[in-house]
Amino acid sequence: MSQGQTNPRWTLDQARRDVEALGSRARGSISVPTPSSASHTAKQVLVLLIPSPIQNILYPPTEPTSAVSPRPTAWLDGMRGIAALLVFFYHLSYSTHDVYTGWSEGYHDYLRLPFIKALYSGPAMVSLFFVLSGYALSYKPVKQMRSGEYDVLFSGLASSVFRRVVRLYLPCVASTLVIVVLIRLGFYSRTYELATDADRLQGTREHHAWRYDTTTEQLWIWIRSFSGFMNPFKETGLGKGIYMDGHLWTIPVEYVCS
């Protein structure tokens, strides 16, 4: 055998020994988790799910954090949070009474007074949320355009097209799939009488999800509805909610407009 050539037999034997050594090290490193370690892991997961402000109160940092200058649009996050909270109040209110008519002749309820009605003025807050989101999303690209950073601009825009799909629609997949599970477990059947009671729900009565005969049919309806909901080129995916949750109609609008 000439110099520079390797022995195939030696290579195969050496590879076999390497694999056996790797396997023995892997077997030695595998251990069954103890109840204490499993409990510690579960605790870490639960702490991770707690909002950051509450985490800082329950578990204050041991070392002082370095001062980081806030983003130029950080103040908009607070405004969007307030707008989202008022939209939540709106959805809690509009099934029980007329939330669209303000203080006027024949409508002298205290909930219709100025400033009080603003606390559950959902449509106005949705518009405000769209305006704030549009400003926050446009600030950086416009700044890059004015500074002539076109390579970074196009790269960021192309990347955001795909990243925003995941950020916007993945939570919707999870939330609507939970609804499917609740429907199959019969929770929606128990509340059907209340959902269709015009005496107790005198305002907007939302669509009550129907329980189909089989789980396969229920999942198929969910998949079909979600496919149209995610498609930005179909009318069913723009400005219209998904069958399982009509409140999600803003998601395709935000994706298309961004």
TrEMBL record:
Write out the entry's keywords from A to Z: Membrane, Transmembrane, Transmembrane helix
Q: What GO molecular function terms would the record report?
A: acyltransferase activity, transferring groups other than amino-acyl groups
Keyword presence, Transcription regulation: no
Instruction: Give the stretches traversing the membrane.
Output: 74-94, 114-137, 168-187
Superkingdom of the organism of origin = Eukaryota
User: Pfam family example for this protein?
Assistant: Acyl_transf_3
InterPro entries, A to Z: Acyl_transf_3_dom, Acyltransferase_3
Segment forming the signal sequence: none
Which ranges carry the Acyltransferase domain? Answer: 74-257
Any idea what this protein is called? Answer: Acyltransferase 3 domain-containing protein
